[in-house]
Write a structure and sequence with these properties.
By secondary structure, this protein is α/β, with parallel strands linked by helices. It has twelve helices and 15 strands.
Length: 389
């Protein structure tokens, strides 16, 4: 005979489901404050109203209900504590009915799942392409499991799970699971604890859920006069209309402020780009978007820039593929003319090569597209990567 009942909150239902899932090892129920069973990695607490606690005594049966007042579990009470801060009950819990609702019913991790020979990538917030690339590299050929870690905030776990399911279709043998992040009375990272306790090899790729917290680096690369700076400046203006996140690192300005002592030979160009990448990475660390517009003619230098930014933040290459003849016709500074006259050495496109990127995320030609059209394409790319909302 039931002595009392308790309607659980959503978070308490999530905790209860973990207790009966087999994911918490020897943990089989709740314990009151001060009772720490030996061998238990965590000690879940269940607080109850004082009037409910007054109906119970050791040996009583407490029925646990969902928000619709449907019984889903029961607990034989073995301990009760009533104090100034509230009331708690302890005892062994037994599931009596499967939970009918809740996030990701078909994707819940349970005690039957093995991670042997696999890599587990733990996600929170929005998964990004750089995160998936980092996970694939870390997997080193092993099957990859994508774990959505529930937490308060946006996007909702249901959206995160849908995104991971879509990602899993691109990864052969990949599985998707959901692990709620709930408070069981212990100050621990519960999803990570569960995975570590099961011997999983984990790479943690969780991010804050707010899209605006994601930093990124955009590299506009192309010939002098291709239109890089013009498009980059207009892009920054549009981004600033949304927030104060973007920072423009124009090639000429950086040269004047950060690299005035450097020349234009291959070694000095590489040093200049490394300085740009370092500053851009710091901007991204603070949640900003660094928009860089140097010429960046060499593939090796661009690869070094990428290595300084990823995998912590997305590094997006936009190749402004305007033809040399068009760029030279826009020679407002007379640089091409001086280079052809031999007055400027190592000038890209004349006596120094430009190596078109084979890893560009976007290719635009300002001879075919207006500035507004070019910026629009970049904005669509940033939306598709969840860098802007």
């Amino acid at each position: 005979m039931t002595d009392a009942s308790l309607i659980l909150t959503d978070e308490q239902q999530e905790g209860l489901e973990l207790l009966v899932s087999g994911l918490l090892g020897p943990v089989d129920g709740y314990r009151v404050p001060g009772a720490e069973p030996p061998g238990w990695p965590i000690t879940p607490r269940l607080s109850v109203p004082r009037d409910t606690a007054g109906l119970l005594s050791p040996g009583s049966l407490l029925e646990l209900h969902d928000l619709e007042n449907t019984p889903i579990a029961e607990m034989v009470v073995d301990d009760i504590v009533v104090g100034d801060r509230g009331a708690w009950v302890g005892g062994v819990v037994r599931s009596t009915r499967a939970r009918a609702r809740g996030i990701a019913r078909g994707d819940r991790l349970d005690g039957s799942v093995s991670f042997q020979g696999r890599l587990v990538a733990l996600f929170g917030g929005r998964p990004m392409l750089s995160d998936l690339a980092r996970a694939q590299i870390a997997a080193a050929g092993r099957p990859l499991d994508l774990i959505a870690a529930g937490a308060a905030g946006e996007p909702p776990p249901a959206e995160l799970i849908a995104q991971l399911r879509e990602c899993s279709t691109l990864l052969e043998g990949s599985r998707v699971f959901y692990v709620p992040a709930v408070d069981l009375g212990a100050n621990i990272d519960l999803p990570r604890f569960i995975l570590d306790d099961r011997g999983a090899d984990v790479i943690d790729l969780r991010r804050r859920a707010d899209v605006s917290s994601y930093g990124a680096v955009l590299l506009f690369t192309g010939l002098s006069g291709a239109g890089k700076s013009t498009v980059a400046r207009e892009l920054v203006e549009q981004l600033r209309a949304r927030s104060n996140r973007p920072v423009l690192l124009d090639g000429d300005h950086v040269r004047h402020e950060l690299a005035a002592e450097l020349g234009f030979g291959a070694e000095d160009r590489d040093k200049n780009l490394r300085r740009i990448a370092w500053v851009a990475a710091r901007v991204a660390e603070g949640g900003g978007i660094a928009v860089c517009a140097p010429i960046a003619p060499f593939a090796s230098s661009r690869a070094s820039m990428r290595a300084m930014v990823e995998p912590a933040h997305p590094f997006i290459v936009i190749y402004v593929a305007t033809a040399l003849a068009v760029a030279e016709s826009r020679d407002r500074k007379g640089l091409y003319a001086k280079a052809r006259a031999g007055l400027i050495a190592d000038f890209t496109g004349i006596d120094s090569p430009y190596e078109p990127p084979d890893d560009a995320d976007l290719v635009i030609d300002t001879a075919e597209l207006t500035v507004e059209q070019s910026v629009s394409r970049v904005m669509e790319l940033l939306k598709s990567r969840a860098i802007i909302d």
